[in-house]
Amino acid sequence: MSILVDDDTRVVVQGITGGEGKFHTGQMEAYGTNVVAGAVPGKGGQEVDGIPVYDTVDEAVREENADASVIFVPPAFAADAIFEALDTDLDLAVAITEGIPTQDMAKVNKRLSETDTRLLGPNCPGIITPGEAKLGILPGNIFSDGNVGLVSRSGTLTYQVVDNLTARGIGQTTAIGIGGDPIIGTDFVDALSLFEEDDETDAVVMCGEIGGEDEEEAAAFIDENMDTPVAGFIAGRTAPPGKRMGHAGAIVSGSGTGTAESKISALNDAGVPVGDTPEEVADNIESFL
Amino acid sequence: MKLHEYQAKDIFADAGIPIPDSQLAASVDEAVSAAEEIGYPVAIKAQVHVGGRGKAGGIKLASDADEAREYADDILGMDLKGYTVDQVLVEAGVDFTNELYVGVTMDRGEGKPVAMVSTEGGVNIEEVAEENPDAIAREHIDPAFGLHPYQARKAVYNAGVDRSVARGVSSILTTLYDLYEERDASDIEINPVMITSDGDVVAADAVMNIDDDALFRQPELAEMEDETYEDDLEQKAGEYGFDYVRLDGNVGIIGNGAGLVMTTLDLVDYYGGKPANFLDIGGGAKAERVTNALDMVFSDENVDAVVFNIFGGITRGDEVAKGINEALESFDEIPKKVVVRLAGTNAEEGMEILNTDLVEVEETLEDAVQRAVENAQEASQ
């Protein structure tokens, strides 16, 4: 079992003819992901490594029965690519693109409330169900099949925590990078509720960071709705107020919202242990299993 | 990207928002002659990218030529929270009876823009938001429709703005939202909007920050960028294109990916050290970028030791190792001890390439950070 993607997932890659799109399509296929189509305006009829390319996502969905898309489209055109994906019957759209204007994402966010297609990202590493499928840029070889779910705002921090888990022989059901932007599709609460419903996920790692209030909302959700134990980590304890720490969303505002302390205490109050180090996160997960 | 007050006011004025008569000056003489032309009293206002200018002594009210000269001389060249003032705005003083706050920003929790009006203008609005949130009237905006006229009126009435000026204030709010949308602002605000004794409304200050990610479609605004840095290192980071934040510790930190670099900072602190910086080389960095990153951290005289932590996804360990070798082989003597930890994509290839005579190697993040903290403690003794 897993959430959102598995070896039945049929993937269309938006932007498959670009450098990033082409490279990661190869990586996704090598991992065993079932990439059935590409979509690039004006490139319909071409093939990329034997994968048929269509002019529109709609056509790719109709012709190849795609049910998920991965978006490797430059920031100036990315919001349009997301709208295009949301306007089809796809179950999932994963936007890897970093640097989409925030007001574009506010418009996308509005559209999300009117469609059944789930958005993951943008500015995220994607999603992987070890041994079955990966949609995005995560390095497949560090993941292994197991019973721990993982959700994180940061890509490389995900890899770090997976590394700490793997060193103890603990594998994952599915790992999700939700992205570091201020406005994203799938958030912690969405991912946690999917893990809660998944029979095979016995514990969940949640890696948050400073900025916004998503972690606090997740803590409230865990407290009220989850039986599956969750181990937390919060990056940015030493970040000074008013400085953006790389991610557009990772900033403690001048008035003190979005601090690590607030997130850690909310999680602790919900019964979630928050590790001081990634190694401690692995300790906490091990104690749950 | 931040605009200066005078730049934002030009944009506001073009959009029809009333602003006081003003001139930009870069010298004391220019400031005095501007003041003479405008007529007293005038406000002399530092044009730097910091908040709270007034409290910090960057805004003064002059009632005659002697005062104008004295204050312009005080403010020009002064150090305001780390930034040097090289321009002042000389502006007609406004005879006001009341001050309001009007602004538009993104509410990230809601994923929607929000328009705000408060009668508690003239002070730090974040303090008002903290201590007395009900004093700010808020209207969330559906970005597909924009700010409806009724919403602008509602915010103004809910804030308790005097009826006699409600129309003028809601017109300013509507214009602000239009600018926010057209110009891809991340924040836009007027604090204060002054209500004059004649019952007119005037924008006495102007804040306009632009979404960096949207500058590609705002070429006019991109040209107005006057990037100033708190210090030379942040400037250098800007030139190299790094996400960099300078801190006050002595352990230099280089890594890939914001979350992992933040975590490395936190671990330095956890193991008893003090982080000197946040430096994210980003995804897919090639050798040259790695060399530049080491140059950055070595240039910081506060740094006593360095930890270089890479978990490769799209970044490849062999490229990183090549860059570290190139950077360090150019020195006769390595200036500061460097601890390297490589994991992920091509980490093994990287370890084979890495010249381990020049660096210390650790296998885990925790060990690498502890070693760097020890190195820094030894070096600073």
TrEMBL record, chain A:
Pfam families: CoA_binding, Ligase_CoA. Pathway: Carbohydrate metabolism; tricarboxylic acid cycle; succinate from succinyl-CoA (ligase route): step 1/1. Keywords: Ligase, Nucleotide-binding, Tricarboxylic acid cycle. GO terms for cellular component: succinate-CoA ligase complex (ADP-forming). Transmembrane segments: none annotated. Coiled coil: none annotated. Substrate binds at residue 159. Succinyl-CoA synthetase functions in the citric acid cycle (TCA), coupling the hydrolysis of succinyl-CoA to the synthesis of either ATP or GTP and thus represents the only step of substrate-level phosphorylation in the TCA. The alpha subunit of the enzyme binds the substrates coenzyme A and phosphate, while succinate binding and nucleotide specificity is provided by the beta subunit. The gene is sucD. Its EC number is 6.2.1.5. It catalyses: succinate + ATP + CoA = succinyl-CoA + ADP + phosphate; GTP + succinate + CoA = succinyl-CoA + GDP + phosphate; acetate + ATP + CoA = acetyl-CoA + ADP + phosphate. GO terms for molecular function: acetate-CoA ligase (ADP-forming) activity; nucleotide binding; succinate-CoA ligase (ADP-forming) activity; succinate-CoA ligase (GDP-forming) activity. InterPro entries: Cit_synth/succinyl-CoA_lig_AS, Citrt_syn/SCS-alpha_CS, CoA-bd, CoA_lig_alpha, NAD(P)-bd_dom_sf, SUCC_ACL_C, Succinyl-CoA_synth-like. One of its GO terms (biological process) is tricarboxylic acid cycle. Heterotetramer of two alpha and two beta subunits. Residues 4-100 form the CoA-binding domain. It comes from the Archaea. Belongs to the succinate/malate CoA ligase alpha subunit family. The active site is at residue 247. This is Succinate--CoA ligase [ADP-forming] subunit alpha. CoA binds at residues 17-20, 43, 96-98.
Automatic annotation (TrEMBL), chain B:
It is an enzyme of class 6 (ligase). It comes from the Archaea. InterPro entries: ATP-grasp, ATP-grasp_succ-CoA_synth-type, ATP_grasp_subdomain_1, Succ-CoA_synthase_bsu_CS, SUCC_ACL_C, Succ_CoA_ligase-like_bsu, Succinyl-CoA_synth-like. It catalyses: GTP + succinate + CoA = succinyl-CoA + GDP + phosphate; succinate + ATP + CoA = succinyl-CoA + ADP + phosphate. Keywords: ATP-binding, Ligase, Magnesium, Metal-binding, Nucleotide-binding, Tricarboxylic acid cycle. Its cofactor is Mg(2+). Mg(2+) binds at residues 191, 205. Gene3D superfamilies: ATP-grasp fold, A domain (3.30.1490.20), ATP-grasp fold, B domain (3.30.470.20), Succinyl-CoA synthetase domains (3.40.50.261). Residues 9-221 form the ATP-grasp domain. One of its GO terms (cellular component) is succinate-CoA ligase complex. ATP binds at residues 45, 52-54, 91, 94, 99. Binds 1 Mg(2+) ion per subunit. Succinyl-CoA synthetase functions in the citric acid cycle (TCA), coupling the hydrolysis of succinyl-CoA to the synthesis of either ATP or GTP and thus represents the only step of substrate-level phosphorylation in the TCA. The beta subunit provides nucleotide specificity of the enzyme and binds the substrate succinate, while the binding sites for coenzyme A and phosphate are found in the alpha subunit. PANTHER family: SUCCINATE--COA LIGASE [GDP-FORMING] SUBUNIT BETA, MITOCHONDRIAL, SUCCINYL-COA SYNTHETASE BETA CHAIN. HAMAP family: Succ_CoA_beta. Heterotetramer of two alpha and two beta subunits. This is Succinate--CoA ligase [ADP-forming] subunit beta.
